[in-house]
Amino acid sequence: MTIESAISFFIAIFIFGITPGPGIFAILAKAMVQGGRACFLLALGMTISDICYLILACMGLATIAEHWGEVFTVIRWVGAGYLLYLGYKLFTSPVSKADSEDVRSNRSGDFLQGFLISASNPKVILFYIAFLPTFMDLQSLQVTDIALASVLTLFALMAGLMLIAHSAHWASAKLKSARAQQNLNRSAGSIMMGAGVYLIASR
């Protein structure tokens, strides 16, 4: 991969990372209630899942997807169900609990949540199948090419996702009243449940 193609690859991945989808919806929902920093593990889980797809695409993801389509379907339904559950909890959460330790203790599962969201999004699979040949010759890939693409993907996606997270937190921080906080919880919960419905409806 040349320097020019590496820069183009980074920019393309960054733009892909901030494109609206279930991952962005989940980041927005969490950032609005818990802050931008709280989204780090969620974003990292999504990013690592994308890197796994990138590596699989280099190894022939189209063939893998064709023979393991049912597995991808199960992952998608599990991810969607988890998002619906989290969205409902957030929607019905009292204002007094929005910043409680009980809510923050769920961060231990944020990485897995992020991984499932990205792994269960069919558009991520299709993106890497169609995207990589634009920047790489998949027939003559070297280990160094895959490693470089993985590192670029890591930094590009994390930069985009954390930018979204901190921007959402900055905007939501302007809402201080109890009523505003309740509306914020309901909005964030609705966004997350919407992400779950999006996954269910995706093909």
Structural commentary:
It is built from ten helices and no strands. The chain has helices at 3-17, 22-34, 40-58, 61-67, 69-91, 101-104, 110-119, 122-135, 143-172, 178-201. The two termini are 32 Å apart. α2 packs antiparallel against α10 (178-201) and α3 packs antiparallel against α9 (143-172). With 203 residues, the protein is mainly alpha-helical. The radius of gyration is 18 Å and the shape is globular. The chain has one domain (3-201).
Strand-pairing-aware structural class? mainly alpha
Q: Assign an overall shape.
A: globular
Portion of residues in beta strands equals under 5%
Gyration radius over CA: 18 Å
Would you identify the regions where 5 or more consecutive residues have pLDDT less than 50?
96-105
Q: How far apart are the termini?
A: 32 Å
Helicity range of the residues?
A: over 70%
Query: What summary fits the major beta sheet?
Result: none
Mean pLDDT: 75
According to DSSP, the number of beta strands is 0
Order of helices and strands: HHHHHHHHHH
Number of helices: 10
Q: SSE layout and pairings?
A:
Blueprint: H1 3-17, H2 22-34, H3 40-58, H4 61-67, H5 69-91, H6 101-104, H7 110-119, H8 122-135, H9 143-172, H10 178-201
Defining key terms:
203 residues; 78% helix; single chain; 10 helices; mainly alpha
Brief write-up:
The chain is mainly α.
